[in-house]
Amino acid sequence: MHGVFHSNGFGHLLCVNGMVGGSNLAGRQIMEFWDRLCTGLRARKVSLNDISQKRSMELRLLHGVAFSEPWFGRWGYKFGRGSFGVTRPMHQKAIETIQGMPLCILVHYLGSSNHHIPVIFSRYQTVSDHSLVTLGDLFRFMLELKTHLPEEHCVDSHIVEPTCRWSPKRVEMATRVIVEALKKAEFKWVSRQDVRDAARAYIGDTGLLDFVLKSLGNHVVGNYLVRRCLNPVTKVLEYCLEDVSNVYPGQQGLVISNSKMKGRYKMTRPQLMKDMLYLYKCILKDQKPTMIHGVLSAIPAAARIILDTKYLVKEYNGELPWKIHHTGHEEAGKMTLCYCTVVCKRQKRGQ
């Protein structure tokens, strides 16, 4: 971390290098220290030039779409000034434009030429406990979900709940048997009972089969997305496969959880970061004709405005690093600070 602090209370944060930059501390830990340092030194106003990135993703754009503020916003840094005539209202309007873009519109205009995007949308909608309607909803959920996922180096793993009575190997074997049974149906809808009967030829434990069938709906396994729905006529659960090999080539044994599967299987952080980077490049940074012209042309224009806003400031307004308690007063911990200028004059001899 490199910063400058002037005696008049103004400071400038010049550089923050987290773990990626070779530090033993994460970027947020360094920022916590810097913020406490400025508070302790009675800072008046601190500025910075936001060029923070994560895997080639500009965080001021990513966090702006997700949380309506840059990554530094969690420590109180706000719009200072924009480049190329960008004003605060323009910056706020740009954020709202991208945030409010409906996912259904993106699927309609991009889904026919890019099958990855609808599959990714569907995956995180399945995982989420609430409806993801806009692009802002999706990126916010992905970033919040990322904080709850452990660091991993392997994406093709099954994670089974500790209380599960079957080992991960047996669950994986039963999953593959069920997928093979569905593949024989040639991507047609098959009733739950028919799938169960076909799998029993290889898996004798019916309890294990019931557990996997209950958990498997709307999950990606290998190169296939397992679909599950209730037949409106027969009122019977049915399953079918959807080939997504062009989306996740070479991924074997990947199972993704939904809200009903929490604690049984869960998504991995590498896979989430891969999806986030893909959406960032295809939607927020794409310069293809589909994005430049038509309904979606507002996205690259708004993204450019957000990226042109790098100068951020924080006004401390006399924040104190500790609380001063006054017994019996409602506004405990508050203090009025008076800033003044002291002029020292040298007195001549004899006066």
UniProtKB/TrEMBL annotation:
<protein>
    <recommendedName>
        <fullName>PTC1-like winged helix-turn-helix domain-containing protein</fullName>
    </recommendedName>
</protein>
<feature type="domain" description="PTC1-like winged helix-turn-helix">
    <location>
        <begin position="165"/>
        <end position="244"/>
    </location>
</feature>
<dbReference type="InterPro" id="IPR059080">
    <property type="entry name" value="WHD_PTC1"/>
</dbReference>
<dbReference type="Pfam" id="PF25874">
    <property type="entry name" value="WHD_plant_repro"/>
</dbReference>
